[in-house]
Amino acid sequence: MGIRLGDNQYGKAEVRLVHVDRHTDVHRIKDVNVTSQLRGDLEDVHTVGDNATCLPTDTQKNTVYAKAREWGGVGAIEDFALRLARHFVDEHEYVHGARQEIEEYSWERITTSAGPHDHSFVRNNAETRTTVVTKDGNREWVLSGFTGLTVLKSTGSEFHGYPKTRYTTLRETTDRILATDVTARWRYVGTDHDFDKAYASIRALCLEAFANTHSLALQQTLFEMGRAVLEAHPEVAEIRFSMPNNHHFPVDLTPFGLDNPNEVFFAADRPYGKIEAAVERDDAPEPGDAWKTVPGFV
């Protein structure tokens, strides 16, 4: 029986970087978490402990910080990840591929009686913006998205007409709360895009579709969100969603002599439904290895 080394990569995980743009008195903050991983001629590293082609993970960490300074900041996280991937592959002949994953955390200016403060911020608890850039030789893929976008609609949602078995206890409803934490990731065609502008638009489209869709199922709402994005953005080949159904159950108030016209709910945190799907365009180019570097569905 032969034994061989399989697919592998290595790097420095969760490099926390905060960049402050001080070019004017009104400062700007970029707060990111970078995970850098490389692939290449690593057979001897694993099998005999020869580190001649093993760029230290500490060097990868230092490169993230140094490039933030050399490049004058981070900019769109997709652009920063692409530049990092290209640097590692182009500058080191023993590195054949790179995976750069970045999360971005947003801050807002603190509002004072004189208006937004120039250099004081409060952490925004909205969604986390994400990107995963993969470079394999000359091929490059960009997957962007967000996680933790919490949304709720207090009506305009139904669920009925489903199969019934002897284990079914869920009651059909024509008026329920629909709530979820949206994780989305979309695959770009090519790499030459205004990523900040596209992100803002895609986020807004997802929110608008969630709000305006009279939902007969969370699956239907998911599809309408994806459809809205693909119709407006030809540069997006596909978008994938993972959306838990954060159940809100009406509380039975009859023991207290009270009715409950869908006003008082128990918000259950578990168990929950988990809805996942991809929305794709027919003519989208094949994804290659883009999704292989992303754990789970998205």
From TrEMBL:
Pathway(s) the chain acts in: Purine metabolism; urate degradation; (S)-allantoin from urate: step 1/3
Keywords attached to this entry: Oxidoreductase, Purine metabolism
Listed Gene3D superfamilies: Urate Oxidase (3.10.270.10)
Pfam family name, one: Uricase
EC number(s) from the headed UniProt entry: 1.7.3.3
UniProt enzyme class: oxidoreductase
Record PROSITE patterns: URICASE
InterPro entries: Uricase, Uricase_CS
Catalytic activity as recorded in UniProt: urate + O2 + H2O = 5-hydroxyisourate + H2O2
Taxonomic superkingdom: Bacteria
UniProt KW Protein biosynthesis keyword: no
Keyword Methyltransferase: no
Role of this protein: Catalyzes the oxidation of uric acid to 5-hydroxyisourate, which is further processed to form (S)-allantoin.
Family: Belongs to the uricase family.
PANTHER family documented for this protein: URICASE
Protein name, as recorded: Uricase
Biological source species: Nocardiopsis lambiniae
